[in-house]
Amino acid sequence: MAIDFDTYDDENIFAKILRGELPCTRVREDEHVLAFRDIAPQAPEHVLVIPKGRYIAHDDFHRNASDAEIVAFWRTVAAVCDELGIRDRGHRLIANQGRDGHQVVPHFHVHVLAGHDLGPMLPGSST
Ligand code: AMP
I want to staple 22 with a disulfide (CB 3.0 to 4.6 A). Which of 15, 16, 54, 96 is the partner? Predict the structure, then answer.
């Protein structure tokens, strides 16, 4: 079934994790943000950072979240990078949005990937 990217789905996997209905391996948490390990890691370090609010994707989050939520979110992304010790070697942040972005879970999240050479930005790209 096609994913609805227009209306927030309270039954999406991350909403269930936030309600404690599904487990996660927590890395960090505060009032506004949860960071946890991806269940199918695509690099030695693969952490997902999500806001606790009901935001479908990054445009929804950046348009509608409060300043406090936005600041807390990006501070958590930075803190996760510090905690994983991946600042010096480098890492990659990814936020997939919508159909062309191949977003699978319709709750805004940033992937933090690191731990080895991550290769080109996209398949077939030279950088
Ligand atoms: P995206 O394609 O950006 O929507 O990515 C969704 C990510 O969520 C994928 O990398 C999945 O492996 C991850 N994922 C799906 N279910 C879970 C889960 N229960 N716990 C942790 N990560 C999950």
Answer: 16
Answer yes or no: is the C-beta of 101 below 6 A from any ligand 1 atom: no
Q: What is the pLDDT of residues 22-76, one digit of tens each?
A: 999 999 999 999 999 999 999 999 999 999 999 999 999 999 999 999 999 999 9
Ligand 1 centroid–CA 43 distance in Å is 13
Cβ contact 31:72 at 8 Å: yes
Domain limits of the chain? 13-114
- DSSP classification of residue 5: S
Q: Is the alpha carbon torsion for 62, 65, 71, 76 positive or negative?
A: negative
Q: Tell me, yes or no, if 46 is annotated catalytic.
A: no
Predicted local distance difference test score (pLDDT) of residue 127: 73
110 Cβ inside 6 Å of ligand 1: no
The average pLDDT across 80-85 equals 95
pTM exceeding 0.90 = yes
CA distance 115 to 92: 10
